[in-house]
TrEMBL record:
PANTHER family registered for this protein in UniProt: 23S RRNA (GUANOSINE-2'-O-)-METHYLTRANSFERASE RLMB
Cited Pfam families: SpoU_methylase (PF00588), SpoU_sub_bind (PF08032)
GO CC terms in record: cytosol
Protein name, entry field: rRNA methylase
Family annotation (Gene3D superfamilies): 3.30.1330.30, 3.40.1280.10
Species assigned in the record: Levilactobacillus namurensis DSM 19117
GO MF term set: RNA binding; RNA methyltransferase activity
Record-annotated RNA 2-O ribose methyltransferase substrate binding domain positions: 10-85
CDD domains per UniProt: SpoU-like_RlmB
Domain of life: Bacteria
InterPro entries in the cross-refs: Alpha/beta_knot_MTases (IPR029028), Ribosomal_eL30-like_sf (IPR029064), rRNA_MeTrfase_TrmH (IPR004441), SpoU_MeTrfase (IPR001537), SpoU_subst-bd (IPR013123), tRNA_m1G_MTases_N (IPR029026)
């Protein structure tokens, strides 16, 4: 992993806290709501004690303040900001699993809940890594971590200066790049075997013009309703699972 880090952050919620405590992520302090008892809280306390971490029992109001009044479920971990991976880390993740790389490229996704949901589906559907830009896009935050329910610990995320340059480099390494477009091929016919990268556009604007020019093939999700657009995480989920289906066909 690269050494790039952001400011101190918090992992919020029980499932994300357990995932973080079981991982190698640097954790500075554990905050538990005083008087709260449950199996999940007991497990968090035991995991923290095994790592010899400082545990602070604090009132709910203090946790509310620390987590900016998010749904913390009685637990928050003070952590060094999340590590970003390199592109080589993403390739290494695919190689470790003995598979051709399947990367997701997010073009200026701004909503942390969308990014968290996308990471959760990426973990479930066998995506080997996610690539995001450094500017005009959400990074790895506590909200992303909580929404991902632990997937932030298992799906490497690379943050790059220029998506167009990165995609062109991936193509030189033999990767076939797909993107979404209203006039594309029906996504249900997508064959995602081999080394593939899938671009998901911004929530409102879609894929930027320069990035769209790098795409080898466009895909479209047919819609028959009145609303002719899908939430970014929902669209990404449909496409990732079509990728999974074509890469792992059902064995009869």
């Amino acid at each position: 992993m690269t050494e790039e880090r952001e400011q101190i952050d918090f992992v919020i919620g029980r499932h994300p806290a357990v995932a973080a405590l079981r991982s190698q992520q640097a954790i500075n302090k554990v905050f538990l709501q005083s008087g709260l008892k449950s199996e999940a809280i007991d497990e968090i306390r035991q995991l923290a004690q095994r790592r010899h971490l400082v545990i602070s029992e604090v009132p709910k109001q203090k946790l509310d303040q620390l987590t900016d009044h998010q749904n913390h479920q009685g637990v928050a971990l003070g952590v060094a900001a999340f590590d970003y991976a390199s592109i080589d880390d993403l390739y290494a993740n695919a190689q470790k699993k003995g598979e051709e790389p399947f990367f997701l490229i997010l073009d200026n996704v701004e909503d942390p809940h969308n990014l968290g949901s996308i990471l959760r589906t990426a973990d479930a559907s066998g995506v080997h890594g996610v690539i995001i830009p450094k500017r005009r896009a959400v990074g790895l935050t506590s909200t992303v971590a909580k929404t991902s329910t632990g997937a932030i610990e298992t799906v490497p995320v690379a943050r790059v200066t220029n998506l167009v340059n990165t995609v062109n480099d991936l193509k030189k390494r033999g990767m076939w790049i797909f993107g979404t477009d209203m006039a594309g091929t029906d996504y249900r016919d997508w064959n995602a075997k081999g080394a593939v990268g899938l671009i998901i556009g911004n929530e409102g604007k879609g894929i930027s013009r320069l990035l769209k020019e790098t795409v080898d093939q466009t895909l479209t999700i047919p819609m028959v309703g009145t609303v002719q657009s899908l939430n970014a995480s929902v669209a990404a989920g449909l496409l990732m699972y079509q990728g999974f289906n074509s890469r792992h066909p059902v064995q009869h």
